[in-house]
Design goal:
Layout lengths: L1 H9 L1 H17 L4 H14 L4 H29 L5 H21 L5 H20 L12 H18 L4 H9 L5 H29 L7 E2 L2 E2 H24 L2 H24 L1
Antiparallel strand pairs: 1-2
Helix pairs in contact: 2-4, 2-10, 3-4, 4-9, 4-10, 5-7, 5-9, 6-8, 6-11, 8-9
Main location: membrane
Organism: Methylophilus luteus
Membrane topology: Multi-pass membrane protein
């Protein structure tokens, strides 16, 4: 059967990526961009797209996939009572605004310094989580602080295509929110960030008169149609793992993940 062979050769990898992204999304409260972007970039280059076009398509396609993945992760975390809704209502509007603005003006911004700052912060936060250091006292953030932090998370996430969880989880953990609730809350925050970016990419696609094969603007449709459903199906499995793993183990898994993200970003900018 030729169509089966074609599917295996060209599209089965998208299904596997969807499984990995779904599990990581539920387990760590991340969107999955750190996995999606480099893999999509490599696949699109292998399909004949130029390096620059492939990179921008990977960013846009990743954000579109995260919209669906985050919804599944949110539903599973809500069922397990892992979401701190007061933080959600305070952070979501500014995260959405920050992500939307960053996507619209990204071409005019030098993301190098933001990326380096992000890498340094995540490595510091990872160290604190790995060593299981806790603040000496509980400090509830004020409205101004949490609004500014949420906007910063939205801006940086959109610029470097990293799920908001890599910033949200360590921030909430430093505010004495339990790591499981920080992961659940960050999953909610990932939705408006991805949605704002996707809306911007869709507007750009609508303005274009011509599109590459199998794409709509910068959105690569086969990847979205295959990655999204598999990630949606597998996100609850990642959430289930958060219930089975001890808190200290969960913290260290997330810490190692953050260290890998920060080192990868530093390497990509300084290499």
């Amino acid at each position: 059967m030729e169509w089966i062979q074609l599917f295996i050769e060209q599209y089965a990898l998208f299904c596997l990526i969807g499984v990995v992204v779904g599990v990581l999304s539920g387990l760590l409260g991340i969107g999955g961009g750190i996995v999606l972007v480099p893999m999509l970039h490599a696949i699109l280059m292998a399909k004949g797209f130029s390096a620059d076009v492939a990179f921008h398509m990977a960013l846009a396609t990743s954000m579109a996939c995260i919209v669906f993945t985050s919804l599944s992760s949110i539903a599973a975390h809500h069922k397990n009572q892992n979401i701190v809704w007061p933080y959600v209502w305070a952070m979501v509007p500014m995260a959405f605004v920050g992500s939307l603005l960053a996507t619209l003006v990204a071409i005019h911004l030098n993301a190098l310094y933001l990326t380096l700052f992000f890498a340094a912060f995540t490595f510091y936060a990872a160290t604190q989580l790995f060593l299981d250091r806790k603040p000496s006292q509980h400090k509830v953030p004020g409205k101004v602080e949490i609004s500014l932090v949420a906007m910063l998370i939205g801006v940086i996430s959109a610029l470097v295509s990293i799920g908001g969880g890599t910033l949200t989880v360590p921030y909430l953990a430093m505010r004495n929110v339990s790591v499981k609730q920080a992961i659940g809350t960050s999953a909610v925050l990932g939705f408006p960030i991805a949605l704002a970016s996707t809306v911007s990419y869709l507007q750009d696609a609508i303005r274009q008169s011509a599109h590459a094969p199998d794409s709509f603007g910068l959105l690569y449709l086969p990847a979205i149609m295959l990655i999204a459903p598999f990630s949606v199906l597998c996100a609850p499995a990642g959430v289930a793992l958060t219930r089975r793993l001890p808190v200290k183990v969960l913290k260290r898994i997330f810490a190692v993940f953050l260290m890998a993200v920060s080192l990868n970003l530093l390497w990509s900018q300084l290499a």
